[in-house]
């Protein structure tokens, strides 16, 4: 079209006036606001609550009258405008006081008391900081540690960003007048794509869950306590005894970026409960309890499977986070036991066909079946809601020794996991560190598990779990970027489409493991005093797979204690 014809059209419809300017602004405004929104989240200079990172692995944390294993548990206890310190005990025995901008090592390490008037040495925060991520998962302040003596630099971030926006508007406005409009448009589109996608993947916010607590019950209101970690729960309940559900008492870390830091936790019934490193489905029996007979493991597994299968066939399935899932367990060599002992518990168990094995060219044998996946973040609050709905009462308190519960409680149910090293003096309990990735890959519908148990792909309701590790005796709760990359590489070898997964989040947890599950009664004696204890811990990675079955057995043991306490001369019988 010639320029003369174009001028004729402008003469007919009108030249570039206010209306045309308004239309142009409407078309361009969404791109301008979207770009500012994307970049603003990167340069957000919010300074969250923070404290110095301790110079080693933490075994215990104390803040006023709150004791826990993880620094991230204490943020809600801080008062605005008040300088508090956090007391931590490291695995090497050193005791440190942490403040927001400084840390102190106590010279006297004989006791872990919050108040201390002895000598202590001051050190700067050379190991960085731990931030409250309940609202902002990641900002430029947390990424670059722009706090304390570097806080002034953080205050320059947003003014610098806005100045850059204005400068960019001038520069690109000038270029748009001098260059071809099409060329500038193509340049902007090509630049916005990778830059916007990179920002989006790196700074997507995460959702936090608050701590929850649990209850337990005795049919006649007989008080007894469920012990978790360094905490206790006093329960009064009228009705049938609720099975106690033991899971993991490790801790979990979570972050959006493979190489980043961050923490996450959720509440669970019957104990202050940090989320399992994997919200394990029941497609395999991964108990690793050499001292537990196979028939007993199968019984617990079947009772748990039947319980969850009833849930998945009810209207409660969505709220409880229980789903059916199908998939494969694959082997690089033909196993000695081609049909595992749990084959008649899961649904539709069969050997994989040759055509199915073509998907996994490095493997020669496999099992195909349908099973159940139980997701902890939904399942645990659902259980807690049911118990509370039946009249359960929760009372929290810190304990260092089970004898602190006598005579207030007639029976103690010890489900403290790794805390049993202290509360029960159990030297057989040890951590097994696990690290996984949670990713968004909605096209993955089937689980895949390598026979080693270290590489697995578990699709869930809202994400896909990629695993994993099994590091015996490792207490480290910080994500390892190299391990995350290795996990992703191994899982992509089984399912190449996972290279397109997005929103990668790391999680680290400690599985409370021992040679066999400790599920037994014990009568503690101290002079003339007696305290019945039911121990129920040490499930390792099989907590969800076994939970209902072992809970039923623990309930039977509690009932036996209850019956003895109701009979005359119960002390002598105990």
Automatic annotation (TrEMBL):
The keyword 4Fe-4S does not apply. It holds the Pfam family DAO. The chain crosses the membrane at residues 21-44, 156-175. Its cofactor is FAD. Residues 295-556 form the FAD dependent oxidoreductase domain. It comes from the Eukaryota. This is D-aspartate oxidase. Signal peptide: none annotated.
């Amino acid at each position: 079209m010639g320029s003369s014809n174009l001028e004729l059209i402008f003469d007919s419809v009108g030249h570039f006036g206010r209306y045309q300017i308004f239309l142009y602004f409407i078309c361009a405004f969404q791109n301008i606001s979207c770009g500012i929104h994307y970049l603003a989240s990167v340069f957000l200079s919010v300074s969250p609550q923070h404290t110095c990172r301790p110079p080693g692995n933490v075994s215990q944390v104390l803040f006023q009258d709150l004791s826990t294993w993880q620094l991230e548990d204490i943020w809600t206890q801080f008062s605005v405008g008040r300088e508090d310190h956090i007391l931590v005990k490291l695995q090497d025995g050193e005791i440190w006081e942490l403040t927001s901008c400084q840390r102190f090592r106590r010279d006297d390490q004989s006791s872990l008391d919050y108040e201390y008037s002895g000598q202590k040495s001051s050190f700067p925060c050379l190991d960085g900081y731990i931030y409250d991520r309940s609202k902002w998962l990641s900002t430029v302040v947390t990424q670059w540690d722009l706090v304390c003596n570097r806080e002034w630099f953080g205050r320059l971030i947003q003014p610098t960003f806005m100045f850059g926006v204005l400068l960019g508007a001038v520069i690109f406005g000038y270029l748009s007048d001098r260059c071809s409009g099409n060329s500038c448009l193509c340049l902007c589109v090509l630049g916005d794509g990778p830059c916007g996608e990179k920002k989006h993947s790196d700074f997507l916010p995460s959702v936090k869950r608050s701590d929850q607590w649990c209850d337990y019950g005795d049919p006649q209101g007989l008080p007894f306590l469920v012990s978790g970690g360094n905490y206790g729960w006093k329960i009064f309940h009228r009705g049938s005894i609720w099975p106690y559900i033991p899971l993991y008492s490790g801790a979990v870390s979570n972050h959006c970026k493979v190489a980043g830091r961050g923490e996450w936790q959720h509440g669970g019934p019957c104990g202050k409960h940090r989320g399992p490193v994997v919200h394990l489905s029941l497609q395999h029996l991964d108990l690793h309890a050499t001292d537990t007979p196979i028939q007993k493991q199968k019984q617990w597994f079947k009772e748990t499977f039947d319980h969850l299968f009833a849930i998945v066939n009810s209207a409660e399935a969505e709220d409880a986070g229980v789903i059916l899932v199908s998939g494969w367990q694959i082997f690089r060599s033909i196993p000695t036991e081609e049909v595992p002992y749990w084959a008649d518990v899961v649904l539709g168990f069969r050997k994989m066909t040759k055509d199915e094995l073509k998907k996994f060219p490095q493997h020669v044998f496999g099992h195909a079946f349908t099973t159940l996946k139980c997701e902890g973040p939904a399942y645990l609050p659902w259980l807690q809601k049911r118990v509370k709905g039946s009249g359960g009462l929760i009372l929290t308190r810190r304990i260092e020794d089970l004898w602190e519960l006598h005579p207030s409680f007639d029976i103690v149910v010890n489900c403290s996991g790794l805390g049993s090293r202290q509360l029960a003096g159990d030297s057989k309990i040890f951590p097994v560190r696990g690290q996984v990735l949670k990713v968004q890959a909605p096209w993955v519908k089937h689980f895949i598990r390598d026979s080693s148990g270290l590489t697995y792909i578990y699709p869930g309701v809202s994400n896909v779990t990629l695993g994993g590790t099994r590091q015996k005796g490792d207490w480290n709760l910080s994500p390892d970027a190299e391990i995350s990359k290795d996990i992703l590489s191994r899982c992509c070898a089984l399912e190449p489409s996972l290279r397109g997964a997005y929103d990668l989040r790391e999680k680290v947890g400690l599985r409370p493991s021992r040679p066999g599950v400790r599920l037994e009664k014990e009568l503690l004696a101290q002079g003339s005093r007696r305290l019945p204890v039911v121990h129920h811990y040490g499930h390792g990675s099989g907590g969800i797979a076994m939970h209902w079955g072992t809970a039923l057995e623990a309930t039977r043991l509690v009932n036996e204690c209850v019956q003895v306490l109701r009979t005359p001369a119960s002390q002598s019988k105990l």
